[in-house]
Amino acid sequence: MPASASRKGAPASGARLSIGQVLEMLQEEFPDLSHSKLHYLEAEELISPERTPSGYRKYTRDDVDRLVFVLRAQRDRFWPLKVIKEHLQEHGVDDGAGVTSIASRPGPSAQLQPVRLDRSGLCREAHVDDDFLVELEEFQMLPEGILFYGSAELEIVRSARALADEGLRPRHLVMLRTSAQREAHMIRSVARPHSRPTDSAARGGAEDLARDLGESMNALHNALLRTSLRP
Description:
mainly alpha, Multidrug-efflux Transporter Regulator, Chain: A, Domain 2, two-stranded antiparallel sheet, 10 helices, MerR_fam
């Protein structure tokens, strides 16, 4: 059983978990995991939970192991679902070292670990003071009025602090925020037609598409920036 699943109520051999229990068990490692994502992975035949006579899904220990493998392969290795499915058919969940893919490029999201920080905790982890957070909020680099911050907010503050150390204060970074907002709008416009309110599998597919588009756009941006910085 993967470590994350075993930490929090992994099903014993022969036990069955509801979809809500699976989401709760994996929330710490995969905070964005949703019903629609599970339905989508089931529709794509990546997982196949049992159904009760009344139609409720029930997940075994093997189902959870397989699910965790699929989610980690997407998040950490950037494998597309086709590659994951082929790997599972050939190797199961135990051996991921032999599969290579153009999608296995390293990316920033592969390094993010789930966190839940209050304001003082965010300052402590990012090595900044509250005035710096206020400055980020002033220029809409950081959301205002939230009780807890996640890994994305921590990365924003750490990156902004590193730039500030070299003289680039938040007021100089507004163009980056605007660019990110425009890219997000572009991604949503592409992904939205793939989502249907009454089809949870389609919603999960749209979420995956948006994530993949974001990673590809980020990789393109980084490559273009490196090219522009060549002497």
